[in-house]
């Protein structure tokens, strides 16, 4: 996948920042010693001069107090509305946040704003660093899908917050932004809430702890590719490599099932706000990845129609087929069998992609309308209705697609946890997960987990991802606490060695 350079920050003009932050009773700030095109780190902006009302104060104490409050509001506004990279949260604040993590989770499960306010007042130093609510706090709120609490911290207008707010464009210590976390949670409502409060959908992941260059849209698509339904039916089916169109129909049927709705809705919201959506779609098609291409096509088909994306994709496929035909003419018959095989596979890939684009172009709107209005239909009903829609638009299959009966979910709210375990997400696949013995003391880490040391730890993931474009293999590491030792066992080993030495000395 193409990985454009990440724009680490979006600095503002000094005068623009001062004007934005001195709105109301604070005067505009200008700097005469620098040109108006100079930029700065939004974490450390130039301080504005005192407001005229503050300058008029005769008491030095009152002046210092009022000017400190002006600087407080200034920094809280700049740091709460700019792109902040990297994470500036101190290690001490992170450690204190771990201590209150369990209590905060209990509150966020109920999504109770009054309870959150009381906890914020009591543990402010655990959730605030540098006049802004820490990205760890916002990350947990998003992960728990606490919409009311998220709106509360994003607005930042409540008196108990003291003018401090959560920044939707503040990168976490793991290298992703809040919108990436919302995409992983598959909450379309949370994604829309973040976008309404200024989250930028084109910020990419960065750092050595994560796959770099991922958009929130990539997270949604790649994680959807790991859905239990898709892997059960498509992972072992390689018939599309030979140009079998039944694979495409099977894929469309699966994407229309009710248990796929929250995944498709999240992808739809993100795709409507992401730039260069046609280029992202072409990336999947040219790499022969039909599953992510189908997810993006079906979810973003309305947006693609407005951009003329279908015509552009069809032109790119035609150009690629023409290039393959010219390349095939340059190969001698009976030779270069490996190259001929590769060309044949590429032609089959583009043929399948063209068929997929044609189906979504003709029947995409009807399929999308059906998905939105039949969220509780049975699988048999979906199969029959989707087949009828495809037949009505003359893009239906000649026979019935063979689909393995999926495992049905009891409640759509838990669909993500049922069909996509959190540890398989593309956001966490670069984390080094350490297993600690069950007798080891509790670590100050949210990702430490006990393991039976008698069992051998597998260094590979139980299931390798094959439907998406990204390599998401995980590294596992088993380690023991060096402080934990068995004193009786050491004494027994010493006694055994000593007795062996004594026997050897007696024999000599």
UniProtKB/TrEMBL annotation:
Pfam families per record: Ank
Biological processes annotated in GO: positive regulation of protein catabolic process; protein ubiquitination
Keywords: ANK repeat, Repeat
Biased segments, Pro residues type: 43-52
InterPro entries in UniProt: Ankyrin-SOCS_box_domain, Ankyrin_rpt, Ankyrin_rpt-contain_sf
ANK repeat residues: 174-206
SUPFAM superfamilies found in the cross-reference section: Ankyrin repeat
Chain spans, region Disordered: 19-52
Family: Belongs to the ankyrin SOCS box (ASB) family.
Protein's name in the database: Uncharacterized protein
Origin species: Lolium multiflorum
Phylogenetic classification of the source organism: Eukaryota, Viridiplantae, Streptophyta, Embryophyta, Tracheophyta
């Amino acid at each position: 996948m193409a990985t454009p350079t990440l724009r680490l920050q979006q600095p503002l003009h000094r005068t623009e920042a001062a004007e934005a932050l001195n709105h109301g009773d604070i005067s505009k700030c200008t700097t005469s010693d620098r040109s108006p095109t100079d930029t700065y780190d939004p974490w450390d902006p130039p301080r504005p001069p005192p407001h005229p009302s503050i300058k008029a104060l005769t008491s030095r104490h009152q002046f210092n107090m009022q000017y400190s409050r002006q600087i407080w509001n200034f920094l809280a506004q700049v740091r709460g509305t700019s792109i902040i990279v990297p994470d500036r949260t101190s290690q001490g604040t992170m450690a204190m946040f771990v201590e209150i993590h369990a209590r905060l989770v209990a509150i966020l499960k109920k999504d109770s704003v009054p309870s959150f306010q009381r906890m914020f007042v009591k543990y402010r130093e655990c959730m605030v660093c540098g006049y802004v609510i820490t990205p760890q706090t916002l990350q947990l709120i998003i992960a728990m899908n606490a919409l009311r609490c998220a709106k509360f911290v994003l607005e930042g207008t409540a008196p108990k917050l003291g003018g401090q707010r959560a920044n939707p464009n503040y990168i976490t210590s793991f290298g992703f932004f809040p919108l990436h976390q919302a995409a992983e949670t598959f909450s379309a409502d949370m994604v829309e809430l973040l976008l309404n409060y200024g989250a930028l959908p084109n910020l990419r992941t960065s750092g050595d702890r994560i796959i770099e260059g991922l958009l929130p849209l990539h997270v949604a698509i790649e994680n959807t590719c790991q859905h239990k339904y898709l892997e059960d039916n498509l992972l072992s089916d390689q018939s599309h490599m030979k140009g079998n169109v039944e694979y495409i129909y099977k894929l469309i049927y699966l994407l229309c099932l009710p248990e796929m709705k929250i995944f498709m809705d999240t992808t739809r919201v993100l795709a409507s706000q992401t730039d260069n959506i046609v280029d992202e779609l072409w990336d999947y098609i040219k790499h022969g990845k039909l599953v992510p291409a189908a997810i993006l096509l079906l979810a973003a088909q309305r947006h693609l129609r407005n951009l003329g994306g279908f015509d552009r994709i069809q032109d790119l496929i035609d150009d690629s087929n023409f290039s393959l035909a010219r390349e095939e003419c340059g190969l001698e018959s009976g030779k270069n069998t490996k190259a001929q095989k590769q060309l044949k596979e590429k032609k089959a890939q583009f043929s399948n992609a063209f068929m997929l684009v044609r189906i979504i172009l003709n029947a995409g709107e009807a399929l999308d309308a059906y998905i939105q209005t039949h969220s509780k239909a049975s699988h048999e009903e979906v199969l029959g209705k989707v087949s009828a829609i495809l037949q009505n638009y003359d893009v239906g299959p000649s026979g019935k697609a063979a689909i393995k009966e999926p495992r049905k979910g009891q409640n759509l709210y838990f669909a993500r946890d049922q069909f996509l375990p959190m540890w398989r997400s593309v956001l966490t696949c670069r984390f080094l997960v350490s297993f600690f013995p069950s007798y080891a003391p509790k670590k100050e880490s949210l990702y430490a987990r006990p393991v039976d040391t008698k069992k051998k730890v597998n260094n590979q993931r139980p299931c390798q991802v094959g439907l998406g474009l990204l390599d998401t293999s995980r590294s596992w590491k088993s380690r023991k606490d060096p402080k934990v030792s068995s004193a009786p066992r050491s004494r027994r080993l010493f006694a055994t060695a000593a007795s062996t030495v004594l026997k050897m000395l007696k024999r000599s």
